[in-house]
Amino acid sequence: MFINSTQVKSCFWLLFCIVISCLYCSCLPKEKEFIIQSGEANFSNTIVIGGTWFSGYQNGGINKRAKDYSLSALLFNEIKKVDANNLIQAEIEDEKGIGLNFKSWEYLYHTQSKLGNRTDCKGVVSMGPVKEKANDNAISLLAKYYSNANAIVVPFATTEQWTNPNFAQNENAMGSIFYKRIAKTGANANMVGDAVFQNPSFFISWPGMEDIFNYAAQGGVGFSAPDASVFEKRVDTIFTALTKNGAKGVIATIPDFKLFPFFNLIKWDNADISQAQADSLNDIYEVSGLTHITFKKGRNGFVIADNNANGGVRQMQEGELITLSVPLDSMKCYKYGLIVNLVNNKYVLDKYEIASLENSIASYNLILRKKAAQYNLAIADIYSFINKLPNSIKYNGADINNDFVTGDFFSLDGLHPHEKGYALIANEFVKAINQKYNSTLPTVNCKECQGVLFP
Q1: Domain extent at residue 147
Q2: Structurally, how many domains does the chain consist of?
Q3: Cβ–Cβ contacts within 10 Å for residue 366, how many?
Q4: What residues form DSSP beta bridges with 58?
Q5: Is 72 inside a domain boundary?
Q6: Domain identity same for 143 and 193
Q7: What are phi and psi of 390, to 5 degrees?
Q8: How do residues 74-131 score in pLDDT, each as one tens digit?
Q9: Less packed terminus of the chain by CB within 10 Å, N or C?
Q10: Do 375 and 420 share a domain, yes or no?
Q11: Contact 118/125 with Cβ under 8 angstroms?
Q12: What's the half-sphere exposure (Cβ side, CA atoms, 13 Å) at 114?
């Protein structure tokens, strides 16, 4: 076969390009292989000690999935990759789940919330969170005992209760029913003692969350966040005990409650009334001598108790908060918060309570940072992380923010994340561990984690 000069040149240049490409590629630096290492930490006997968020609490309770998709489980999935022990946690073998009812005078336990159709007092049907009273079978699951749990995780347990030997027996304490399921037998059993008994090499903890959020969620009624000096003493007691045999660990800062839908969904001035209604209310309050309370057509602040105000009552002010547990039908149809019935204190965070909470969070976070340095612990800055949510965070290609239902971070209770939210929090813990202890744990990539489920 005859080959002309043009074909020879083409073949030569093709061969030349192949050789140059090979030489170029051989000179490129090879991508460094990612090796998972524990660094300076020893994860062989890791435990978790903490409260509600570690349990996987979401949509107002815990269900069957929480065992595998809780914050504790998501963290352990990554720690296990450096030959850590297995996570053993109490669970609820029920799909509907169970949680404590904040309105305990109705009934003690309800199912988890799910999206469904609701009919309000005006006969308007809309989609929203729906829950029901928990059945006896679900309640009976709370009596199942787990003798060897290394997830010392108790929803609603405050730092005072972590070291309280009477916590399990105190039926009036929020969370005691959950601690009974895992408490070690014997006198003076307490959460920290149970954790120390296991001689951990590494611990994951988050003190202070329940001290703040039990107070906030109940509108400051029945709870009080401890003074900073008291909180510091409790944290010292906890960390001294956990680190006495050389254990390392990771803790986290406390986020800003004002960014949670539970506190910002119902607006302080959501009393939307007509001119005739405003005139009628103004007449009533004027006759009562409460002329500082005035209404206009459109949006108005609800009326609340305030011992510092004239007559002990006033209207809510911008920046004050109403909790998501407020009886909405009473507001819509029965003038709740306008006349006769003030908005109950347990549904309101007024300016004094908000200032107290903000001061407590700032003080607690300073203490947690100081103690992290003192006890050589990693610390995840969840406060700063949650502050990013209003502007959205990318996760698996999706925008995640703090909007209720659609934001894809918070669950339907507006107070706790759902699985996707917990995965993002877990990543902040992982990053903190890696930075502090020169480990190379991989971050969570949970494609199976669920958000709010639509019917």
Answers
A1: 46-264+351-437
A2: 2
A3: 13
A4: 61
A5: yes
A6: yes
A7: -55, -30
A8: 999 999 999 889 999 999 999 999 999 998 889 999 999 999 999 989 899 999 999 9
A9: N
A10: yes
A11: yes
A12: 14
